[in-house]
Design a protein that fits this description.
By secondary structure, the protein is of the alpha/beta class. Helices cover about 45% and strands about 20% of the residues.
Length: about 375
């Protein structure tokens, strides 16, 4: 059974998000896009390519003139302008033009890097997202935000460039490590916290099924998270307002991610950032301490970190790193906080002392 969500902009259909349990319909979906006879380059990394590259090539080859692939070493440290430059060289040497297509096959690093390359090569060519991690299936493949890191600063160089298709094969979840799978749950729990108390409660009541990666439960969860993101990006495609709510947990999360030299996965850092944002929401009087502890327990049940204890990070350095976040507004940090579970808002009044106190609290708290 195919599940399909159509993303719109200004009332027009922009692209479909397809959920399947295999790659069997990928070629058919691509054939609808009017790219027959064009060159396709599949961009992937050294972890994903050995598992899925041949299967995706088999699906797409009948619908293109020339099939190519560009595979780079896996890891966040490869998400930089040097790798983009290598991809440009490949595309130039193999004579890819403006009507040709890139395919991002992999997780968020692949999708972001491929998308940014597509946005900037020849001033923009088309690209398709084929996300293979839970995190990329519910977050980074949707919405057209692309980018690469610059001197360890997360996504500091980027562009908005919408894909022409997002094709999710939920069977790829079975090949993820426990840590990679849990990383995706950091973004999924975030969706419930910022947009839907009911969805958050559903996640909390299906921990066992989700942790077992039961396909029907995972499919339901991915669809709901995709709808959360679809709704927000349709309302604010260029992040001029409400789309910033998706950054819940990311200000502190990105600072921790950078200072850990990307040794923690993105979703793990987002989970820690969510803990900090929830604590600030408690200090504001919006959430109770009981709700705070319940959220910590939920994150912990999915194998996500809930404390800075043991990470050996300097508190003042974390504070300083938040000041280098790209979401700064006139020298002030824009935090996303919660008025209640399911209702987020933008707050630019968090003081350095409040943030430092929160970081200290996170460093003292024990794991569940």
């Amino acid at each position: 059974m195919t599940d399909r969500i159509t993303v719109h902009r200004d009332g027009k259909d922009i692209y479909d998000i397809i959920l399947e349990h295999s790659f069997a319909r990928l070629g058919e979906e691509v054939s609808r896009l009017g790219i027959n006879g064009r060159k396709i380059c599949i961009v992937s990394d050294s972890n994903v390519a050995p598992i899925y590259l041949d299967a995706v090539k088999e699906q797409l080859t009948p619908y293109c003139h020339t099939m190519g692939s560009f595979v780079f070493p896996a890891g966040e440290e490869q998400k930089n302008l040097d790798t983009v430059r290598d991809l440009y060289r490949y595309l130039i040497c193999h004579h890819y033009d403006r009507k040709d297509v890139l395919v991002a096959l992999g997780g968020g690093v692949v999708g972001d890097l491929c998308g940014y390359s597509a946005a900037t090569y020849l001033r923009g060519i088309r690209f398709i997202q084929v996300p293979t991690t839970l995190l990329s299936q519910v977050d980074s493949s949707i919405g057209g935000k692309t980018g690469v890191d610059f001197d360890s600063y997360k996504n500091m160089v980027g562009a908005f460039h919408m894909p022409i298709l997002v094709y999710t094969n939920t069977a790829t979840l079975q090949t993820l490590s426990k840590e990679q799978y849990a990383s995706g749950m950091g973004e999924i729990i975030k969706h419930g916290l910022i947009q839907s108390h009911d969805y958050y409660d559903w996640i909390d009541s299906h921990v066992s099924e989700i942790n077992r990666r039961e396909d029907e439960t995972c499919r339901t969860m991915i669809l709901e998270s995709d709808r959360v993101k679809q709704k927000i990006v349709e309302e604010d495609p260029l992040e001029l307002g409400q789309r910033a709510l998706l950054n819940f947990g990311h200000t502190l999360g990105h600072a921790i991610e950078k200072l850990m030299d990307f040794q923690l996965l993105h979703g793990q850092c987002v989970a820690l950032g969510c803990i900090g944002a929830v604590h600030l929401s408690v200090l504001r009087g919006f959430l109770s301490e009981e709700e705070e502890q319940a959220i910590r327990r939920t994150l912990h049940r999915f194998g996500l970190p809930v404390s800075l204890k043991g990470l050996h990070l300097n508190k003042e350095e974390i504070l300083a790193a938040t000041k280098k976040d790209k979401k700064m507004d006139s020298g002030r940090i824009r935090f996303i906080l919660l008025r209640r579970i399911g209702e987020a808002y933008i707050d630019s009044t968090v003081s350095d002392q409040e943030l430092l106190d929160t970081i200290c609290w996170m460093s003292e708290e024990n794991d569940e």
